Amino acid sequence: MSQLTYLKAINRTLAEVMRADPRVFVLGEDVREGGPFGATQGLAEAFGEERVRDTPISEGTICGIAIGAAQAGLRPIVEIMFIDFITLALDQLVNQAAKAHYMSGGQLRVPLVLRTQGGAGQRAAAQHSQSFEAWLTHVPGLKVVMPSSASDAAGLLQSAVADPNPVVYVENKALYFQREEVPDAVAPIPLGRAAIRRPGRDVTIVATSRLVAEALAAAEQLAGEGIEVEVIDPRSLVPFDLEAVASSVARTHRLVVAHEAVGQGGFGAEIVAQVQAAAFDELDAPIERVTAPFTPIPFSPPLEDAYLPGKDQLVAAAWATLGYQIGG
Amino acid sequence: MTTDAASSIIDAPVAFSLLRTMWRIRAFEERVSELVATGEVPGLVHLSIGQEGVAAAVCGQLRHDDAVYTGHRGHGHALAMGAPLDRAMAELMGRADGLCHGKGGSMHLVDVAHGLLGATGVVGGNIPLALGAALAVRLRGGDQVAVVFFGDGAVQAGHFNESINLATLWELPAILVCENNGFAEFTPRSAHTKVERVSDVVAPYDLASETVDGNDVFAVYAAFGRFLARARQGRGPMLLECLTYRLRGHYEGDPARYRQALEVAEWQARDPILRLERRGLEQGLFGQAEVAAAEREAREAVEAAVQFARQSPFPARDQLFVHTYAEQE
Questions:
Q1: Exposed (0-12), middle (13-18) or buried (19+): which is B20, by Cβ within 10 Å?
Q2: Cβ contact (<8 Å) for A91 and B125?
Q3: Among residues A182, A215, A236, which one ends one of the domains?
Q4: For A44, which of A159, A233, B97, B150 is 20 to 30 Å away at the CA?
Q5: Is B64 in CB contact (< 8 Å) with chain A?
Q6: Residue A328 predicted with pLDDT over 80
Q7: Which domain holds residue B157?
Q8: Bridge partners, residue A3, by sequence
Q9: Total structural domains in chain B?
């Protein structure tokens, strides 16, 4: 065990997968220097500039090159520096990567990892702070992973690289410098398997990425008020572990769904729809959602703080499910 | 290089092979046009009738371990790479025995066994994919090359300029083949850009580029052959601009009112098959009987392909869900 940041766990895992498989290479803007946060720091020195390729600011084309290389049998890890810029790569990701296996009748494979990061809270304003994962979950053929801790970041990245499909691996910049105990050898975490972060009997909170820690903080506060919250982290949105959530709801009968993205059209809406279909009879209250409001992300610090969903909204949402009276 | 010089490297077997390939494409697409009209080939279909010389001359020199990417007008490239006529026809008819089991259709022919890695319906989106294939050759080592076909309409897309920049920066063994047929969908090139020649667009990048008469199969063969020899040594990229003309509309059903009758008549006189036949006969590369046989055999093979496709079932309903995700091998 050692104390590692989320970012260092990613960096260490990138080195491990590159060491283990010569087909793996990294490309993206400023990756030789490590990028703005340092996720790829030291890789160029360790593996050379052929396998750690700096690219111009051409998101669409670098994504397409990664897809072509994956179709040719390599294992590219392409970095899109901010998820806000994935808009420029969506043609390649959606029209090429996601469909190649299907449209070719199984002839082509795209074992690609696209690493990117989202999330607000850094006073970076509306074009460097967004959470776009729901768009990606809407595309058949893509997998979408959102690690919420350093250990998960390491375990999920290994599985993403080993997966024969295009996997979008969405980091959160607010988590990058959080430190935790991480085993020296992290086992791969299969995609599609949720983690119960805290067991509880009264209400279930399903939270992704940065909001997992917020949910745990809410659970801690609610425990002091006599409410036991179960916190579930799906870890990957596609595939989504409905079974884990539905069986938790069968125990608690109350559900709060939380993510940092805006609520409208967000992945939380999909979770709500899937859970009500799978476990309608188990629910004792309407499902609550905690999300960002339907606005762009403001720059001014007090406004951005007001924008970000967190512990207080989660506590209120949990109470809302508990206060609901059937027929009341 | 003039076409006279080119003719010195094209011997009788090569010339006849080019003619056979061009006839296979022509016969296939003429039959497809009929099947679109009767509804047996559904969907959006873009024919390359009049442009067969480029497909034959380029693909005829490639190997099955090379990587070819094409676009929405890609039947000719698929057939010239060696995709079987019957499975190609079955794909266009949406049948289970199609190249992609009926999942792709006319715009998305893939035949990995013959080096055809993809056909994209989003103009210009295939160029980065080919660069990825070329990068894979670089990282793995080998003498394979990546070739991408696109039209002059793709040159105005952002991917094109990003790709030229990166391909030259990384010196990738890729050959970009632009079939400049003068029209981006319904609109003449002159209405979309001030730059008439695609080779002028890429001039600042200092990559090897050449503009040839795309309806002169000998000229395309010679120019592409020179580029290919360099790419096999890991050098690149290169751009080959082939001036050509599609004798059909943008898609089947396009009334093509944007064209002048005189222009069409002029290009019909420059039909690449007619020109190859005339020249081959003049130079004694093949005889009249062989010319007739090339056309006849092509039409017979296409008819057999239609029969094969008609007998192939439509995919079973459960195939809807197959191949959404790849399984671990």
A1: buried
A2: yes
A3: A182
A4: A159
A5: no
A6: no
A7: 3-309
A8: A181
A9: 1
Q: How far is the CA of A232 from the CAs of A128, A193, A247, A249, B51, in angstroms?
A: 28, 11, 11, 11, 59
* Domain presence at residue A189: no
Inter-chain CB pairs, A–B, below 8 Å:
152
Query: Do A154 and A204 belong together in one domain?
Result: no
Buried b / exposed e along A187-216 (16+ C-beta atoms within 10 A): eebebbebbebbebebbbbbbbbbbbbbbb
Q: Which residues pair with B212 in a beta bridge?
A: B242
Q: Which domain holds residue A67?
A: 2-182
Total domain count for chain A?
Answer: 2
- Scanning A15-54 for CB atoms below 8 A from B yields 25, 50-51, 53
**A190 assigned to some structural domain:** no
Q: What is the pLDDT of residues A45-57, one digit of tens each?
A: 999 999 999 999 9
A176 and A42 in a common domain: yes
- Does B328 reside within a domain? no
Q: Report which of residues B121 and A302 the model is more confident about.
A: A302
- CB contact (8 A) between residue A66 and residue B132: yes
For B146, the token pair is 């990546």
What pairing do the DSSP bridges indicate for beta strands A2-5 and A179-182? antiparallel
| Contact check, Cβ <8 Å, B324/A140 | yes
Q: Please, are residues B210 and B243 in contact by the beta-carbon 8 Å criterion?
A: no
Band of residue A163 on the pLDDT scale cut at 50, 70, 90: very high
pLDDT of residue B5: 56
Q: Does residue A187 fall inside a structural domain?
A: no
The model's pLDDT over A182-236, given as tens digits with 9 standing for 90+, comes to 999 999 999 999 999 999 999 999 999 999 999 999 999 999 999 999 999 999 9
Looking at the fold, whether A128 and A204 belong to one and the same domain comes out as no
Q: Which among A182, A206, A232 is the end of a domain?
A: A182
Regarding an ipTM greater than 0.85, the answer is: yes
The answer as to whether B88 is a domain residue is yes
Q: Which two tokens stand for residue B207?
A: 């990559």
pLDDT per residue over B281-325, tens digit each?
999 999 999 999 999 999 999 999 999 999 999 999 999 999 999
Structure tokens at A83: 């998820």
Q: Domain for residue B58, yes or no?
A: yes
Domain presence at residue B325: no
Looking at this protein, which amino acid is placed at residue A80?
A: I
Tell me: do A209 and A133 sit in the same domain. Answer: no
Name the token pair of A121.
Answer: 């809270």
Both tokens of A107, joined, read 């002839």
CA distance B259 to B251: 14
In sequence order, the 6+-apart residues with CB closer than 8 A to the CB of B299 are B27, B31
Sheet with A229-233, strands from edge to edge, namely A195-198, A229-233, A203-207, A255-262, A288-292
Does the N-terminal peptide bond of residue A183 adopt cis geometry, omega within 30 degrees of 0? no
* Cis peptide leading into residue A111 (ω within 30°): no
Among A91, A104, A105, the residue with its CB nearest the CB of B122 is A91
Q: For residue range A104-146, list pLDDT tens digits in order.
A: 999 999 999 999 999 999 999 999 999 999 999 999 999 999 9
Catalytic residue among A29, A59, A133, A260: A59
